[in-house]
Design goal:
The protein is mainly alpha-helical. It contains three helices and no strands. The chain is elongated, with a radius of gyration of 14 Å. The chain starts with a helix and ends in a 17-residue tail after the last helix. The relative contact order is 0.09.
Length: 52
């Protein structure tokens, strides 16, 4: 992917859109995994949950 090989970010974004990588379902699933929250309850973030 782009992070490993570099290259033209515009071409990477275009390919990612064509492949559905940036579709809401994909983004929500990735965000849920990173945040440790259910995909259907990503937003709004509860108060105080993002403080370090």
């Amino acid at each position: 992917g782009y992070p490993a090989r570099g290259g033209n970010i515009e071409q990477w974004l275009s390919g990612a859109m064509d492949k559905g990588w940036l579709a809401p379902a994909s983004l929500h699933a990735s965000a849920a995994a990173v945040l440790g929250r259910p995909a259907d309850r990503l937003w709004p973030v509860p108060p105080g949950s993002m403080s370090g």
